[in-house]
Amino acid sequence: MQVTDHQLIDFLKRYFGFDSFKGNQEVIIKNVLNGKDTFVLMPTGGGKSLCYQLPALMMEGTAIVISPLIALMKNQVDAMRSFSTNEGVAHFLNSSLTKSAIAAVKEDVINQRTKLLYVAPESLTKEDNVEFLKKVNVSFYAIDEAHCISEWGHDFRPEYRRIRPIINTIGVAPLIALTATATPKVQSDIQKNLDMLEADVYKSSFRRHNLYYEVRPKIHATKEIIKFISGNKGKSGIIYCLSRKKVEELAQTLVVNNIKALPYHAGMDASTRSKNQDMFLMEEVDVIVATIAFGMGIDKPDVRFVIHYDIPKSLEGYYQETGRAGRDGGEGKCIAFYRYKDIQKLEKFMQGKPVAEQEIGKQLLLETVSYAESSVCRPKLLLNYFGELMDGRCDNCDNCLHPKEKFEGKAYIVLALKTILGVQERFKPDHIANVLAGNATSAVKSYKHHHNEYFGAGEEKDKKFWNAVLRQTLIARLVTKDIENYGLLKLSEKGKEYLKNPYSIMLTQDHDYDIVSNEDASSGGGGTGAVDEELIHILKDLRKKMAKKLELPPFVIFQDPSLDDMAIQYPVTVEELQNIVGVGAGKARKFGKEFAETIKNYVEEKEIIRPQDMVVKSVVNKSGVKVFIIQSIDRKIPLHDIAQAKNLEMIELIDEIEAIVNSGTKININYYIEDIMDEDRVEDIYEYFREAETESIQEALNELEAEDYTEEEIRLVRIKFFSELGN
After folding, report:
1. What is the pLDDT of residues 170-227, one digit of tens each?
2. Neighbouring C-beta atoms of residue 37, cutoff 10 Å
3. Is the per-residue pLDDT at 525 higher than 50?
4. Which of 66-70, 174-178, 297-301 has the highest mean pLDDT?
């Protein structure tokens, strides 16, 4: 169908009210109107839908749009109907319709009132639908979210693989495949599977200048999130979690901290899900806490932040989810919380899946780890992943705004490139990093690479370091990833030239989030800032003075982690003290008054601005384990029976009881101790703690070694001691 530029703008204005096209839209639409196969790569918010909606309205017949989500179809159909006086202009055909509704849709299509028919891939495979569609004059087929075709795409759907044979059965017509995320590997898969290798490819830049990218260590993430949202009051945001349980918990925690939030996940009934989505779109709530199912095709332009509580399974998924921020070109902050433990958890979930699927999943996870730990400009890394080159820095990500120190990389790069050649360009980055670092892993041994001349050639550095070097050679385009055997590293022409004439390239060392986590964990505190050393000394002196007066060991009053947290959070009332690590209501009332007053005077004297989010209210633990334990002990139920009832090991139950007692709740386990221990043994341990300088179990074991006490006995008596004297 031939149209002039002027006619095309007229149609655009008439149907959608726009005066001009965005980016590649115009050339894509002309290509579709000319009946050519078209492949569209366009980031979220780039206006993909218009690329098939406008030609569908202009051409003879009905366009078949294959789309993966029922909610997405409904939104698209509603939007199309709002542009037209003809109610039948767009329909969807899927499992949510009644028989009479399906009959009405089919009637509109046969009578040529329908220009766009949205179909789920599952519906497309049904025999009666195939027979019906054979009677339809199909203008073209649009395959939306085309990355679902590839096993390497972040949302693989096996039924997408059957689209081409079904199209051939229904009747061949031009194809337009569209996706917001595709690596070169995924693009190649899509084109092969849809038999559209000759298609014209239109690739828009994946660069979104308005999006700020940051990765934070996952320490006290809930507290960090509350602090961030409180500082961005009234702004719309999405928080992604991987599990439904976490979605529910986090949404509840936000609500009790005065943030308007709702959950969204596949385990909720459809009407609640739909209601929550609508409330977010209508700005009745500010934040949606969701699993990845939320957001596909949600056309909310003013989402101001996207937070990933859990790091996603793939960079494609991550890019698409962050792409929901700032679609209007305004501010969009993308913050991800990362710790390597989460990656290990995701790897565990893969066990039991087919080996090929596990391999793909692990490879995609490695890409995510690379992104999270890297100190390179984040948009540059993301763009490189999607096969796009970006010059310079973005100056809008954590790595650019707070750059890590750079070092001369020439010698390391030369060694890395030689090693890639030394293993015949047939291995992935992790393997090459192990060879360089001299790690004789089972894979390295199985290929006899522990006898390779490059094995251990860079052993003064670890595997993590070499992975960072390899990553930066990819960004510098000295190395490429093989598309057919995804992930295998090969030297590019530029890389071969570099080996002949090496030149200076400055590299940056990766972040090590595990070190950050361990340091923070050892402080035992809230993690919102550094411990105030001066205040710590004041509080320890106060504790010593109080201990002397009450004739108690100092640790019975408050343990060291509690003092550390006070010197971070600066609680100035007895109520605020209850939010400190290891301090419950009882302990705060019993010992807290003097501590709160001392801190208050210190804060006023030093003019200290306290953390704004200090009091993060938590939701009562729904499992009620602690409540169950307290009630059971009140009823004098033997501890091993309590453990059995809650499916706990004895040591886990003791952990729980210690936590209850440490926070200031008085409990009486004398009935159990008397049942399993002699009175003399109890008295010995009790007296030891009365004289001890520390509450350490290890020191107690060493000191009481001759008496052959067990760890369990010592811990039980210590609970009695704390409960009677401290609470």
Report:
1. 999 999 999 988 889 899 999 999 999 999 999 998 899 999 999 998 888 898 999 8
2. 22
3. no
4. 174-178
pLDDT at 646: 81
pLDDT score, position 373: 84
Range 659-676 average pLDDT: 87
Tokens 């009620």 sit at which residue?
Answer: 624
Domain end marker among 203, 233, 248: 203
Residues 302 and 24: their CA atoms lie apart, in Å, by 23
Angle between helices 410-422 and 463-475 (to 10 degrees): 90
Spatial distance between the Cα atoms of 592 and 572, rounded to a whole number of angstroms: 10
- pLDDT of 522 strictly over 50: no
Please provide the size of the chain in residues.
727
Query: Phi/psi at 484 (nearest 5 deg)?
Result: -70, -50
Query: Is 503 in contact with 439 (CB distance < 8 Å)?
Result: no
Beta-ladder partners of 230: none
Residues 478 and 555 in one domain: no
CATH code: domain of residue 267: 3.40.50.300
Query: How far is it, in rounded angstroms, from Cα 225 to Cα 287?
Result: 11
Query: Other C-beta atoms within 10 Å of 204: how many?
Result: 19
Instruction: Answer for the pair 237, 229: CB distance below 8 angstroms, yes or no.
Output: yes
Position 250 scores a pLDDT of 93
Find residue 215's DSSP bridge partners: 336
DSSP per-residue string spanning 459-487: TTS-HHHHHHHHHHHHHTTSEEE-TTTTT
How many Cβ atoms from other residues are within 10 Å of residue 248's Cβ?
18
- 471 and 562 housed in the same domain: no
Q: Which residues lie across from 262 on neighbouring strands?
A: 288
Give the three-state DSSP class for 183. coil
Q: How far apart are CA 661 and CA 672, in angstroms?
A: 16
Boundary (domain end) residue, out of 364, 399, 434: 399
Tell me how far apart the alpha carbons of residues 298 and 199 are, in angstroms, rounded to a whole number: 28
For range 229-236, the mean pLDDT: 92
User: Can you tell me the distance from the alpha carbon of 659 to that of 495, in angstroms, rounded to the nearest whole number?
Assistant: 57
Average pLDDT rounded to a whole number, residues 576-588: 82
Number of domains, the chain: 5
- Residues 219, 341 within the same domain: yes
* Cα–Cα distance, 47 to 28 (Å, whole number): 11
- Mean of per-residue pLDDT scores for the chain: 87
Rounded distance, CA 139 to CA 654, Å?
A: 70
Q: Are residues 88 and 190 in the same domain?
A: yes
Query: Dihedral, CA atoms, 551, 554, 555, 557, nearest 10 degrees?
Result: 70
Q: Is 601 helix (H, G, I), strand (E, B) or coil?
A: helix
Is the whole-model pTM more than 0.70?
Answer: no
Specify the higher pLDDT residue, 261 or 362: 261
Tell me, what CATH number does 532's domain have? Answer: 1.10.150.80
CA distance 624 to 619: 11
Quick one: tokens of 103?
A: 């009959």
CB–CB of 526/466 below 8 Å?
Answer: no
One domain, residues 306 and 376? yes
Torsional sign, CA 375, 377, 383, 389? negative
388 and 263 co-located in one domain: yes
Q: Which phi and psi angles does 161 have, rounded to 5°?
A: -65, -20
User: Is the domain of 164 the same as that of 128?
Assistant: yes
- Structure-model confidence comparison of residues 342 and 296, the more confident one: 342
SS3 42: coil
Residue 603: strand, helix, or coil: helix
Specify the pLDDT at position 521: 35
Q: Which domain holds residue 667?
A: 625-726
Judge if 429 and 477 occupy the same domain.
yes
**Torsions phi, psi of 658, nearest 5?**
-60, -40
